[in-house]
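Journal club side-thread
Mid-discussion, someone asked how the predicted structure for our own chain would compare to the paper's figures. Pasting it here so we can look after the session.
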Amino acid sequence: MVESLLPPLHTWLVNPLQGDVRDAIGRLRRATDVQHIAVMPDVHLSADVCIGVAMGTSHLIYPQAVGGDIGCGILAVPFDATADCIADPARLLAEFPQAVPARRWNRKSAPDLPDELAHATLSCPQLQKAWRHQAALEFGTLGSGNHFAELQADGDNRLWLMVHTGSRAIGPAIRDHHLGQAEAIGSGLRALDANSSKGRDYLHDVTVARSYAAANRRHIALSIGTLMASTLHVTLQWELAIMSDHNHVESEIHSGRSLWVHRKGAMTAAEGEWGALPGSMGAASFHVRGRGCPEALCSSAHGAGRLMTRTAARQKVSARELQRQMTGIWYDHRLVNQLRDEAPSAYKDIRAVARAQRELVKIARVLRPLLNYKGV
């Protein structure tokens, strides 16, 4: 396709795009019906479509531009206490896995799904079977990788909880099923027409997965809140909660046009909208407010973004080096070897990411990590 005929490409970058990332974005830019692409400063390579990209289409839906962890996002909520209330962080951290398992519950201890999810239906029998078998057993669980629950302190030393997780196994199941229904359009990409029955089925299932992911984060926060109330006598203040997700597709109006906006590793940042921008497990996080930048499709980065692949991080970061990078932050030292690919140095500098997207969001609050819980 002639360069002048390609859709607009807008970038907010920490460093120039690496060749493989540039090539992947170029392929996406040439894909059918892509009208607009915005690249966030946390962009990095991922399967099919890079993480850290927002894209608009007029009628085609690209499941690969949403990814597998549909509805993955952040919940940040404060306690009515300061960080000084944590007198024994090691003991507190040791109780987190009981309140919030990393993987799944056993059938006797699994919590009930909220009513709106207990009666949810997905678009085909295979997905409905996966929902029955997995949704309840994984509800209220954290997952692994870059998912976490973290206690943080803001500039006034107020204690906050931040939870990052998504739709667990049901998200990839939805993606994989609908990719099998989608039409191949070249370069390994597949698409569904939003106006077709297949497209409507995918959009329906995305809505269910996003609802599940949001409810999952809330349940995790409630579980940790119950633990904190019993041990430290503190209470979550839900009226101040910040909620956002960063893997989704939805119909939006931009510059007078109706677009299907896909965000994979990008959160919405409409004018005045609150969002949470996490750093790595050893770095600051930010609460931000959107500036409604039209060139970015009113989007923002979703975090620091990987600097190294997991393989490279495991090769370059020793257990001792991870311990050094995590000085002053409580985490499960028994997992130090398994967590090397989550080392702070495996991620971009969150402050550089924030500087690169000053047009997109305004920083309202800076938080430092105190205690980080991850699953492996």
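Post-session note: The chain has a mean pLDDT of 96.
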